């Protein structure tokens, strides 16, 4: 799902986002069953009734993986326009063989991610994970 050697600042951001997300879902950092609980929540699509699976042809390169990310962002925005919410989950790639068998995807296709889709549950506190400061991620030239 991620490079073997995920370095700073990416690793720090990833860890911070995971900590925020799973603490909000009441899975404490020192819970010995944390990995299993996280896997279970993900596998249940966080309670969403629908999961979309996005595949790319195995021959595609980095540019086309970027295209797929842009495409999925549009899908997620269109879902919002219909009043739905969604959550991309790369975790499904850990179970890619089972997913491919279930959806009938052949070997020429690589699973990118799943996207859980559903209506927001009323009364659940909103969680928005932190974002890196724009000065860390964007360089403005000529200002
Ligand atoms: C491609 C992609 C894959 C992701 N995979 C997972 C995942 O497997 N499990 C998970 O809990 N969050 C995953 N996330 C993070 C969440 O889907 C979500 O983007 C993040 O929690 C921010 O949510 P927010 O905008 O509501 O704060 C992934 C995000 C992206 C863009």
Overview of the structural elements:
The chain is α+β, with helices and mostly antiparallel strands and about 140 residues long. It has 2 domains: about 1-45, no CATH class; about 45-120, 3-Layer(aba) Sandwich (NADH Oxidase). It contains 5 helices and 3 strands, in the order ααβαβαβα. The protein has helices spanning about 10-25, 35-45, 60-80, 95-105, 135, and strands at about 50-55, 85-90, 110-120. Strands 1-3-2 form a 3-stranded antiparallel sheet, covered by helices on one side. The protein binds flavin mononucleotide (FMN).
Provide a concise account of the structure shown.
By secondary structure, the protein is an alpha+beta fold. The chain has helices at residues 10-24, 34-43, 62-81, 96-103, 134-137; strands spanning 50-57, 85-89, 109-118. Helices cover 40% and strands 16% of the residues.
The total of beta strands comes to 3
Helix content class: 25-40%
CATH hierarchy class name of the largest domain: Alpha Beta
Radius of gyration: 17 Å
Name the CATH superfamily assignment of the largest domain: NADH Oxidase
Bound molecules: flavin mononucleotide
Largest sheet, spatial ordering of strands: 1-3-2
Q: What's the average pLDDT?
A: 94
Largest sheet: 3 strands, antiparallel
User: What's the helix-strand series?
Assistant: HHEHEHEH
- CATH fold call of the largest domain: NADH Oxidase
Which word captures the global form? globular
Low-confidence stretches: none
How much of the polypeptide forms β-strand, as a percent range?
15-25%
The rounded distance between the terminal residues' Cα atoms is: 37 Å
Structural category is alpha+beta
Number of domains: 2
The CATH architecture term of the largest domain is 3-Layer(aba) Sandwich
Please give the count of helices.
5
């Amino acid at each position: 799902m991620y490079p073997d050697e995920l370095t700073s600042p990416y690793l720090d951001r990833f860890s911070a986002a995971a900590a925020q997300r799973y603490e909000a879902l009441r899975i404490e950092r020192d819970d010995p069953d944390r990995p299993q609980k996280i896997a279970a929540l993900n596998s249940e699509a966080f309670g969403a009734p629908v999961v979309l699976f996005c595949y790319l042809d195995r021959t595609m390169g980095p540019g086309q993986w970027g295209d797929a990310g842009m495409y999925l962002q549009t899908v997620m925005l269109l879902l919002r326009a219909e009043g739905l919410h969604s959550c991309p989950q790369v975790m499904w790639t850990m179970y890619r063989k089972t997913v491919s068998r279930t959806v009938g995807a052949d070997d020429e296709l690589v699973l990118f991610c799943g996207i859980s889709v559903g209506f927001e549950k009323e009364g659940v506190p909103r969680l928005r994970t932190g974002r890196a400061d724009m000065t860390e991620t964007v360089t403005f030239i000529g200002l």
